[in-house]
């Protein structure tokens, strides 16, 4: 036994954090290295771009390396000096902080996870025991064997199904019983008898044993009540609960379950619904049959016996916690002295009260309630007596402890009543504020939540998706961007309405007489508003110049025609999209497709039918509106070039709206209506590189970029096939097609490759040193991680868009103007730099800062999709609860006040009631 102790001791010593000055040096090393590399890279980019964009270059072709260095020192002395200083500082700091780090060999990742998890378990169990109400009146509890409660080979062979309880010798600990039961034990007892406290003490001893022996499993205490919500296989539920309660990655928890490195301590079989308990027993037996390792289950006696009429737990042994005897209670109160003399006399006079005091929990409650005060006349009936005791306890705790002015008795009772009801309804034993969901709202708030947390964010997501996709594909003016933003907002609101269609359906059924009229009015008003905004956006492109002008008359003509046509298209989509959505749901549920199953599967996954419908309606509407505008402006006898140009414009917009609809649908489908937090954001360079260069990811990127390039290039070719540049007829369409295709294909492909590779490279296999110990920490983490992802994604999207735009602009200018005169290399040297400056600092074609606008819109879209929407929905839930006075907005002070009043207890970053009986009282 000494060898495991020594090895574990050395492992714990290796895991001791480094001194503060070493951590400070490492932090400074990261900052200085980052600044130095950034300055040097920016210098290199500046030199390269200056050389490429200057005709003939600045450095002579035969210049040696010495002249290059001299030229750098002469041209950029300050930047070069700053970069070298930062790199030198990083080198010095790295040398200083390296020595202590090499003194102790780092632990392996698996051992680090184990050490951190054991440290976390030890602290959690100690905190819960310290706040346990039973600890105020804890005495030695008796135990008794109950062979008939479990089913195993011994009970079957010896027919022990009806053997009575067998009292164990006084002083027998639960750890001894656990060892004799071959680490398979069922703990039974009456409410408040001390079962959970005994289980906690056993968990503490098992943690100490696991710290001394690396072969021992990790004892995890889990409440069984949440299993009844979805009733999954127990191994899946174990991994999910361990990850949620102990704040570890779920992927790591699943691996621990599969490798049988966890020792489940399952408490609260009685806390779920009565009809779910027999199924839970069956699930526990199935798990234990597949994982024949240590297992402990704890439950109230009466509830377990009722649930086990058909199936018993397949464990080796069962014990029943015995109640306190009247002599024990009297001796304890006599030892306490005069403050509890009135309670002692009341116990001797009231048999029902004496029976109630037979558990450590209720004895503690009675002592806290009637300490130093006379005991008023109490009922002789058990149920009424229990209610009176809890009322007196509640009133006494509010009077003696906490902030009575800020949280008076009735307000505290009302808020705890709602909390207890929701915890019982959702089978939760610990209340985490970040786990609030829409079904926690009081009746009558569903419509407010739908508009504030579902449809309004859907409109925002649609607008951001429209702007991002439009800029990535290289389309243009300010008015056009706002038009796409308006239609993107419409699609976002439409798809979010389809996602929450059940609520609207129920409202229609509740009032069928006015349902049809209301729907027609809403659709007409929405379509008219979208058409009006779409038409008004043409006014932003007014221009008057020597070669081209777009005046108020053109604005009135184009805006009126386009507004009417687009409004009709929106009305048509409002009527058809809900039907297509229901068909997609039915098709995915039945899955009866025989022909082209792969294509149908892809169409369902990407909402293909909805995207094709949107592309057809809005593409045809856009092409028709521009054709009518040209017909009224230039006469009905249009040339083929104008017709093809309008056709290409319609194809461009159809493709654009199809991509936007797919993106918006996928984002809203992933978010649904609930609150999905983004609490974890961890990756390594190895995992990121591995995900970026995975063969499947590369193939998908190439296919996606090629499809976008071909479709965008083809539509631009059709619309510009008769354009006559200075050097030919057909070359204009080819040049425009090549440029537009390169912008769309490169931007979409690079963004898809980098962003999806980044998301897939996020690693969740490490237990962090800091777990969820701060109240509402999940929302804080989600806010931080979504901000990081938004900034990184915005930089990636903006950079790829700028580079692809610069390349396409350079190729277009080179091919159309300079290729015949200066040659391809000379043209690219000039026009690539010109395209880069145009994309970053404004171009005549775009009229705005293209790169920055693309980065902002793309970053906001990723931020909303990757945690920002969850933060918004959480805030809406809190505001609605505050508006209805159901629960306070500043929940942390109230919950801390209830903890000080011994009504709640702190469990990590959440709160639980002191006991299930107290939760039942408030509920």
Describe the structure.
This protein has 923 residues and is mainly alpha-helical. The chain folds into 4 domains: 2-106; 110-323, P-loop containing nucleotide triphosphate hydrolases (Rossmann fold, 3-Layer(aba) Sandwich); 461-673, no CATH class; 674-883, no CATH class. The protein has a 7-stranded mixed β-sheet, with helices on both faces. Strands 8-9 form a two-stranded antiparallel sheet. Strands 10-11 form a two-stranded antiparallel ribbon. Strand 5 (262-267), helix 12 (277-290) and strand 6 form a beta-alpha-beta unit. Helix 29 packs antiparallel against helix 30 and helix 30 (730-760) packs antiparallel against helix 31. It is elongated. 40% of the residues are buried. The model is unreliable at 1-16, 55-67, 99-105, 502-509, 724-729, 817-830 and 842-848 (pLDDT under 50).
**CATH domain class of the largest domain:** Alpha Beta
| Strand residues, percent | under 5%
Distance between the termini: 50 Å
CATH structural fold name of the largest domain: Rossmann fold
Task: Provide the CATH superfamily of the largest domain.
Answer: P-loop containing nucleotide triphosphate hydrolases
Number of strands: 11
Q: What's the overall geometry?
A: elongated
């Amino acid at each position: 036994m000494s060898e495991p102790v020594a090895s574990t001791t050395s492992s714990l010593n290796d895991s001791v954090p480094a001194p503060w000055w070493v951590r400070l040096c490492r932090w400074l090393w990261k900052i200085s290295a980052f600044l130095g590399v950034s300055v040097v890279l920016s210098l290199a980019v500046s030199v390269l771009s200056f050389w490429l964009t200057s005709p003939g270059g600045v450095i002579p072709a035969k210049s040696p390396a010495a002249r290059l260095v001299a030229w750098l020192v002469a041209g950029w002395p300050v930047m070069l000096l700053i970069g070298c200083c930062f790199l030198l500082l990083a080198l010095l700091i790295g040398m200083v902080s390296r020595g202590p780090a090499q003194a102790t060999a780092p632990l392996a990742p698996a051992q680090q996870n184990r050490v951190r998890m054991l440290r976390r378990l030890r602290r959690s169990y100690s905190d819960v025991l310290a706040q346990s109400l039973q600890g105020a009146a804890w005495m030695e509890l008796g135990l008794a064997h109950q062979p008939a409660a479990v089913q195993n080979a011994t009970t079957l062979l010896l027919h022990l199904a009806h053997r009575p309880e067998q009292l164990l010798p006084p002083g027998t600990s639960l750890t001894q019983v656990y060892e004799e039961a071959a680490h398979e034990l069922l703990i039974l007892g009456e409410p408040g008898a001390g079962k959970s406290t005994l289980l906690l003490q056993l968990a503490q001893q098992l943690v100490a044993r696991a710290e001394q022996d690396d072969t021992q499993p990790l004892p995890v205490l889990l409440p069984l009540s949440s299993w009844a919500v979805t009733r999954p296989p127990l191994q899946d539920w174990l991994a999910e609960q361990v990850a949620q309660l102990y704040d570890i990655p779920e992927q790591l928890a699943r691996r621990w379950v599969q490798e049988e490195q966890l020792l489940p301590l399952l408490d609260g079989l009685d806390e779920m619904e009565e009809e779910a308990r027999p199924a839970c027993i069956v699930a526990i037996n199935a798990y234990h049959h597949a994982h024949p390792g240590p297992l402990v289950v704890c439950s109230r006696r009466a509830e377990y016996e009722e649930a086990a009429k058909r199936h018993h737990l397949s464990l080796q042994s069962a014990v029943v916690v015995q109640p306190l005897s009247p002599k024990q209670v009297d001796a304890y109160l006599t030892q306490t002295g005069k403050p509890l003399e009135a309670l002692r006399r009341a116990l001797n006079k009231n048999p029902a009260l004496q029976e109630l005091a037979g558990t450590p929990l209720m004895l503690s409650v009675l002592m806290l309630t009637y300490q130093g005060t006379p005991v008023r006349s109490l009922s002789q009936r058990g149920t009424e007596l229990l209610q009176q005791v809890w009322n007196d306890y509640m009133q006494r705790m509010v009077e003696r402890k906490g902030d009575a002015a800020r949280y008076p008795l009735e307000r505290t009772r009302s808020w705890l009543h709602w909390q207890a009801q929701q915890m019982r309804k959702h089978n939760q034993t610990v209340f985490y504020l970040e786990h609030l969901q829409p079904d926690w709202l009081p009746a009558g708030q569903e419509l407010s939540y739908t508009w504030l947390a579902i449809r309004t964010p859907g409109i925002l997501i649609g607008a951001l998706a429209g702007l991002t996709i439009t800029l990535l594909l290289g389309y243009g003016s300010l008015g056009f961007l706002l038009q796409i933003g308006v239609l993107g907002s419409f699609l976002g609101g439409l798809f979010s309405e389809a996602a929450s269609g059940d609520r609207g359906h129920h409202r229609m059924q509740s009032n069928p007489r006015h349902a049809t009229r209301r729907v027609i009015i809403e659709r007409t008003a929405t379509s008219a508003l979208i058409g009006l905004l779409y038409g008004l956006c043409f006014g932003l492109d007014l221009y008057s110049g020597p070669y081209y002008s777009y005046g108020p008359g053109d604005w009135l003509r184009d805006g009126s025609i386009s507004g009417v046509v687009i409004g009709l298209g929106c009305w048509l989509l409002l009527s058809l999209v809900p039907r297509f959505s229901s068909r997609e749901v039915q098709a995915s549920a039945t899955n009866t497709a025989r022909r082209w199953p792969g294509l149908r599967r892809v169409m369902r996954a990407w909402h293909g039918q909805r995207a094709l419908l949107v592309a057809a309606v809005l593409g045809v509407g856009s092409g028709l509106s521009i054709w009518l505008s040209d017909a009224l402006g230039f006469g009905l006898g249009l040339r083929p070039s104008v017709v093809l140009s309008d056709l290409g414009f319609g194809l461009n917009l159809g493709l654009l709206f199809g991509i936007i609809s797919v993106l918006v649908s996928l984002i809203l489908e992933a978010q649904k209506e609930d609150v999905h937090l983004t609490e974890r954001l961890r990756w390594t360079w190895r995992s990121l590189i591995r995900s970026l260069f995975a063969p499947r990811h590369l193939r998908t990127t190439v296919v996606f970029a090629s499809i976008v390039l071909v479709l965008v290039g083809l539509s631009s070719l059709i619309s510009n096939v008769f354009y006559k540049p200075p050097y030919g007829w057909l070359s204009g369409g080819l040049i425009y097609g090549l440029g537009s295709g390169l912008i769309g294909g490169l931007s979409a492909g690079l963004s898809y490759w980098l962003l999806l590779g980044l998301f897939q490279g996020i690693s969740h296999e490490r237990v962090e040193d800091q777990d969820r110990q701060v109240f509402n920490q999940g929302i804080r983490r989600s806010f931080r991680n979504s901000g990081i992802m938004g900034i990184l994604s915005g930089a990636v999207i903006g950079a790829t868009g700028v580079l692809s735009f610069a390349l396409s602009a350079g190729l277009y200018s080179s091919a159309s103007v300079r290729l015949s005169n200066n040659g391809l290399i000379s043209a690219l040297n000039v026009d690539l730099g010109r395209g880069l400056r145009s994309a970053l600092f404004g171009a005549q074609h775009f009229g705005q800062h293209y790169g920055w606008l693309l980065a902002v819109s793309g970053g906001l879209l990723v931020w909303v999709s990757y945690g920002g929407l969850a933060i918004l929905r959480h805030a809406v839930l809190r505001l609605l609860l505050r508006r209805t006075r159901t629960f306070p907005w500043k929940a942390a002070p109230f919950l801390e006040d209830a903890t000080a009043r011994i009504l709640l207890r702190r469990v990590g970053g959440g709160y639980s009631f002191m006991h299930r009986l107290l939760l039942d009282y408030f509920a």
